[in-house]
Amino acid sequence: xxxxxxxxxxxxxxxxxxxxxxxxxxxxxxxxxxxxxxxxxxxxxxxxxxxxxxxxxxxxxxxxxxxxxxxxxxxxxxxxxxxxxxxxxxxxxxxxxxxxxxxxxxxxxxxxxxxxxxxxxxxxxxxxxxxxxxxxxxxxxxxxxxxxxxxxxxxxxxxxxxxxxxxxxxxxxxxxxxxxxxxxxxxxxxxxxxxxxxxxxxxxxxxxxxxxxxxxxxxxxxxxxxxxxxxxxxxxxxxxxxxxxxxxxxxxxxxxxxxxxxxxxxxxxxxxxxxxxxxxxxxxxxxxxxxxxxxxxxxxxxxxxxxxxxxxxxxxxxxxxxxxxxxxxxxxxxxxxxxxxxxxxxxxxxxxxxxxxxxxxxxxxxxxxxxxxxxxxxxxxxxxxxxxxxxxxxxxxxxxxxxxxxxxxxxxxxxxxxxxxxxxxxxxxxxxxxxxxxxxxxxxxxxxxxxxxxxxxxxxxxxxxxxxxxxxxxxxxxxxxxxxxxxxxxxxxxxxxxxxxxxxxxxxxxxxxxxxxxxxxxxxxxxxxxxxxxxxxxxxxxxxxxxxxxxxxxxxxxxxxxxxxxxxxxxxxxxxxxxxxxxxxxxxxxxxxxxxxxxxxxxxxxxxxxxxxxxxxxxxxxxxxxxxxxxxxxxxx
Length: 637
Hints:
By secondary structure, this protein is an alpha/beta fold. Helix content is 31%, strand content 23%. Among the domains are: 66-241, Rossmann fold; 510-634, ANL, C-terminal domain (GMP Synthetase, Chain A, domain 3), CATH 3.30.300. α5 (98-114) packs across α9 (223-232).
């Protein structure tokens, strides 16, 4: 398969970009024509950012799995579609050809149908990074059910919140998960999440760790038993259910500036076209390349660049169950060598962590198969970029520094590998079809080429979120109300004389910790659940490995003699309510917080203290008690 819409030169990039801005509908219509549709669209695009309402390929009918699986069977049936590296390198890896993956997905569709799942139902998936996770995702898409994958590091409370919000009547999980040396009891966490939930009809449980689990008669069934029933009945093919281009494909929850996670909804047609287009162009994918995205499918990166983007392109996608530092810090490099990986796409946090081990883990590792490197989740600092370029890419592999979000479905701003220029620490140029602008605080577009401001997008692209599940007003207020007529990314950015963009970080109350977005309000709510806490305020601060760390200022009730013990208790509380990823890195106990007379916490002051910028706090005249600031500075950790 060749890709007629793959950009091959800088000149072609500018030509395609210009076409995409002058005639977006013609541009995307041409790209979409290369996919399998049951019925072509009546209209390419209808949109209004005020409501907001965006509809791409209106009236078109399709099923995304026919584009990810069926259409490849004739010419790529025996090509590896999905390769899996287990947590323990001593265990057997697995390879699923397109034929085999198709068979497993169809059989699991029968399992879902036999258990009552039908088009439009919500299915919550809480699984380890094993092939059955990808199979479950694709089977939901094929049967027309809306999948909602929850990352395996989230707590029972976090799952319960998502389950109730989506009103998911079906769950797919596993007995447990291996993650490095840890065993995580996934089914037990699901059982805790289901306390007080009466609408879940079935829980399908895959075997992974063989940890003892509780199985409730009538509700809980084993994946293997259900699969065997399907095979005994001789059921194989499962016709893909016809979907409208604007039917929801999945819900993925992301942190916002309030405590409650938002269920971002992506739809079948636009998501498919956009993830495929960005995958093929960003990574300059060539047929036969092995693409290794190190993300978890519980995050949008895994959805778009392990499953849907690569498979819709007929690519070979590698998924990994473990962590980069187990059994040693050379694990990624061993995997690259073992599978002859051509494209490595990982997070700056992972790179910084591996940098700290020095070059010893690289000894004896053959990385010569690598052609392209990529980063995702957060801006990469120049030191990490250079280390990655010199030591992993041997100064010959272009690095794509991709900027995008859960809400955008796919990559928005990046260099195209080896085609458009890279600039260390900069995301660089927008994808064709993407119209970024910088605005000032009043929402006026900044016309100067060299500028800084808040990053907005002024025209829809096929992968833009359509709504937040069950609460469209929240979608409007979160993304379209700050600057009417624009999609507001929540990020600040710089633009240079050549039109390159550098993302400078969140400008709202959301942290970017190891590439994962965590709302400050969410963490504060969890800290405040601790019995000894009166109030808390959370801010981000620079962290050598994570990019951004979590700094919590906490007011306690009464006297706590053992501060370290209390810190551990608070962290345990946060882990129970959200998950370990949200634990504060620093907890400073304070007697008060800097508040205005109206009771608003002045976070910019707390942020400056956490960042060690103690010179000037600006105007503090509106503070109820200015003396609080000096007291907090004195107690800084």
